[in-house]
Amino acid sequence: MSPRFEPISGRYMRLELLGKPHRLYFEEAGQGIPLLCLHTAGSDGRQYRGLLNDTRITKNFRVIVFDMPWHGKSSPPTGWQDSEYRLTSRDYVRMIIEVADALNLDKPVAMGCSIGGRIVLHLAHEHPERFRALIGLESAAHTEPYYDLTWLDRPDVHGGMVCAGVVSGLVAPVVPVEEKWETLWHYMQGGPGVFKGDLYFHMIDGDIRGRVDQIDIKRCPLYLLTGEYDYSCTSEATLDVARRTGAPATIMQGLGHFPMSEDPEKFISYLLPVLEKVRAL
Amino acid sequence: MIDKIADWVNADTGLVRRGRFVNTTFMIAIDDAYTLLRIQEGRVTKVVSGPFVTPDYSFCLRASRAVWEKFWQPLPPLGYTDIFALVKQKLMQVEGNLHPFMANLLYFKDVIASPRREAKR
Lengths: 281, 121
Hints:
The complex is a heterodimer of chains A (281) and B (121).
Chain A: E1 9-17, E2 20-29, E3 33-38, H1 49-52, H2 55-58, E4 61-66, H3 89-102, E5 109-113, H4 115-126, E6 133-137, H5 159-168, H6 177-188, H7 194-205, E7 222-227, H8 235-245, E8 249-252, H9 259-262, H10 264-279
Parallel strand pairs in A: 3-4, 3-5, 5-6, 6-7, 7-8
Antiparallel strand pairs in A: 1-2, 2-4
Helix pairs in contact in A: 5-6
Chain B: H1 5-10, H2 13-18, E1 23-30, E2 33-40, E3 43-49, E4 59-63, H3 65-71, H4 83-88, E5 92-96, H5 99-103, H6 105-112, H7 115-120
Parallel strand pairs in B: 1-4
Antiparallel strand pairs in B: 1-2, 2-3, 4-5
């Protein structure tokens, strides 16, 4: 069998991020409107490989996916071994703006899932002028912890296995089994304490319930897509954001918390109409 | 149905392998009906139904019969597909020494969901 090469290219970028030198890995494919994609807590940019490979998207959009520091092939900053990783709203917003600037992206579309779906609400609130549009996947204004997060990072429990175990039930039970396990594989490869550190933003620091009403979708259009099987960022929570902002929301049938990786084909069928609206802006 | 968990688990070589370091006894509580399940090296070696006077187990999963019946459907309704979904909605309690459960979460999730296999037949 002769090899088939995917149209994705990956590069490392050296840049100053959050005031420190960083080595950041990102992948991209396509041309046109920049579409900056944000992965979920404890995972990495591989979640968006379905989009990067889909010519229906890449013929009009330059899809860019970066691994956040500490995630995937991006390294943590020097001295990480003596610190505890904790993602804050302030750092997360700043990181996205700084990456967009480093890549000279002119009014990109930002699309994020879970913590990424939360941070696009922060971006809509704080920096609407910087983006052509924002797309929130599994967006909720807040998520209450529903288990003891210390299980995610302790030496007597395998971190990769427990992180995958925790999120496994967030995958819809009807998706292709190989895509479910690919999604979990990414979780099994996270660094120690990284998923837990991301959840600090997701469940504590990133609470935006008190400011959702101030989001003005006339300044930056916001679109919401949520999988029906997601019990962490629920349909109800997304519809509440939609009601309070006026953003259009779609509940995606047969999908869970990781729509772009657990069933890329089905997810893209929901995303394409949104991207058509974005192109028409 | 619960007494057949041993057959379903032990016939699944992949699942037994995933649990090859698991040696514990845990409890499933369906309303006030209690069952102890003994696991040795990933195999379910003993299933005993209560009542018990002094049950000895590491952890217990407790829910009403109505919740368990929905959870064990071949395709459970929304909100009933996963243990943590039930815990979040306060429809299930996971009690006791959670270390064996959390350290082998992917194993126990499939053991506990194994009655769905019978329902599929």
